[in-house]
Amino acid sequence: xxxxxxxxLTASSTEDTVRSLLTRSMQAxxxxxxxxxxxxxxxxxxxILWDGPEDxxxxxxxxxxxxxxxxxxxxxxGGIANAAQALMAVDGAEVDxxxxxxxxxxxxxxxxxxxxxxxxxxxxxxxxxGAGLAAQYWSEESGRWxxxxx
Length: 150
Fold this sequence. Notes:
Elements: E1 3-9, H1 14-27, E2 32-35, H2 39-50, E3 61-62, E4 73-76, E5 86-89, H3 97-101, E6 105-111, H4 115-130, E7 134-139, E8 146-149
Parallel strand pairs: 1-6, 1-7, 2-4, 2-5, 3-4, 5-6
Antiparallel strand pairs: 7-8
């Protein structure tokens, strides 16, 4: 059982944080499922990842293709279809405590300027820690990422 890491975004964009965490996850040798709540938003993230710098290309695909199981990073709305060791949830995507228990890492990114997103993250924190998962809360309010809890 790994760690659930909550990222309270106040300065960085979701896109920049996704790219950074995906890069670090792949360096750790993990496959990643990036779960969202809106197919169009995932398509935009897909485009951003494709258009990134050549020297930091992140191989990935959108859920629903013929090679989902082979994708090192899979963007989708549902379950984990690529044998991922890490799950990244954006835009309020839910993470079930039971699925989280089998992963090395869970990243939950939420927009600190959106009160509904902050409230949803609090609910997720309570559900996941209540199920016995170790959790960390990371904030960038000082201008750089700092662990505030966990």
